[in-house]
Amino acid sequence: MYSVSHYFRISFFLLAGMSILLLAGCRTEPYPKDFEQLSEDERIVIRFSHVVGEDTPKGLAARKFAQLVKERSNGYVEVQVFPNGFLYKDGEEMEALLNGDVQMIAPATSKVTSLIPEWSVMDLPFAFNSYEEVHQYINGPAGKKLISMFDSHGLQMLGLWDNGFKQMTNRNFPIHTPEDLRQLRMRIMPSEIISKQFLVSGAIPKEIDFNIVFHHLENGDVDGQENTLSNIASKNLHLLQNYLTISNHGYLGYVLLVNKEFWEDLPESVRDLIADALLEVSEWEWKNAHKLNAEKLDELERCKCIDIYHLTEEDRKLWEQSFQPVYEYYEDRFGTEYIKALPKNKKEAD
Ligand code: LMR
Fold first, then answer.
1. How far apart are CA 42 and CA 50, in angstroms?
2. 74, 62 in Cβ contact below 8 A?
3. Ligand 1 mutation target, pool 50, 163, 216, most atoms within 8 A of CB
4. What is the tens place of the pLDDT at every residue in 255-289?
5. Which residue of 90, 92, 256 sits with most ligand 1 atoms within 8 Å of its CB, as the best mutation to test the pocket?
6. Are the CB atoms for 187 and 222 separated by under 8 Å?
7. What would the pLDDT profile of 21-47 be if each residue is shown by its tens digit?
8. Side by side, which strands form the sheet with 224-227?
9. pLDDT recorded at residue 321
10. Which ligand 1 atom is nearest residue 106's CA?
């Protein structure tokens, strides 16, 4: 585990205090303290591992966060970002966080469901109609309860970053109706609810790590997959698929998680600095994620490299009906609390 030596904690604040006094009193420039000259043991180092490319909503936000923290702490706190699963892959990063081998990760909400299955409410098909609805839910009582569940696992959730809404792709024919999924082998993230979503349609879901989806599509181990446009395009998955259905059937976003012990061990001023930076970056990330996904749709439409079908309102109703058993399955397992709190159900109840 990373613990910061007492000496450097004190000197950090002494230096900060002296700088303020110097600036206020003498109005002479203090010698800038360059914390980057310190060794890793003397600085606070946060290793932040994730599995997507750098030119994605999460990749760009992670880098922006690292930059902001470095600037604001004069290099005393360093966030080292490891993208593309270089350090830890899907299925490895959570364990690495719990062991203290990395201090921060941002897995898709679907990927925390093996630890806290209630989180799979976020995977329910057509649960949310907009990003606003997702944020409203996460900030409401059901979301707060879900967030608090990380505590007992030695984790602290510091925020939620959006990616976007998932779309479906397939190699041999277009997907317009739920029947079109029959017998299709579809790559999925590890989530019982996503698995169920495909099983009720007669498809064959296969859990595959994000970093090897391309190879599995290339080898023909799976016929299709679901993901956001930014994830599809950043991994060139569309080059192996002939049909894209703009279905917006599921939300894909990230929980920003830190190791709780590491977090609580940090000086309060450092925790505040990180939390403030995260808030600022998150607001930027939400807008950027929406913009990136819209840009990718534009690019895919212009490239004429994949046939694109947009679900109509009528199609969507049919899909929603066909997924009703997935909601029943969730309710059987976790009761009605989380489903009742979904914005679409609250609207109906009002
Ligand atoms: C996936 O596995 O498809 C996504 O969770 C990847 C990511 O982190 O966006």
1. 25
2. no
3. 163
4. 999 999 999 999 999 999 999 999 999 999 999 99
5. 90
6. yes
7. 444 433 344 444 666 666 777 899 999
8. 204-207, 185-188, 224-227, 167-170, 243-246, 307-310
9. 98
10. 8
52 touches ligand 1 (CB under 6 Å): yes
Joined together, the tokens standing for residue 315 give 């199609």
Amino acid residing at 40: E
Q: What is the pTM of this model?
A: 0.88
Q: Closest Cα to residue 43, out of 77, 9, 72? A: 77
Beta-sheet pairing, 155-165 with 251-259: antiparallel
The domains of the chain, with CATH numbers, are 35-349 (3.40.190.170)
Ligand 1, atom 5: closest residue by C-alpha = 108
The encoded tokens of residue 235 equal 């991994």
> Which of the listed residues 86, 194, 227 should we mutate to test ligand 1's pocket, taking the one with most ligand atoms within 8 A of CB?
227
Q: For the CA atoms of 62, 65, 71, 77, what is the dihedral angle to 10 degrees?
A: -80
Residue 251 has pLDDT above 80, yes or no: yes
List pLDDT tens digits, range 63-97: 999 999 999 999 999 999 999 999 999 989 999 99
* Residue among 322, 37, 20, 298 nearest 199 (CA): 322
Which residue has its alpha carbon closest to ligand 1 atom 1? 210
Q: Which atom of ligand 1 is nearest to the CA of 51?
A: 8
Inter-CA distances, 173 with 117, 186, 310, Å: 33, 13, 14
Strand partners, 181: none
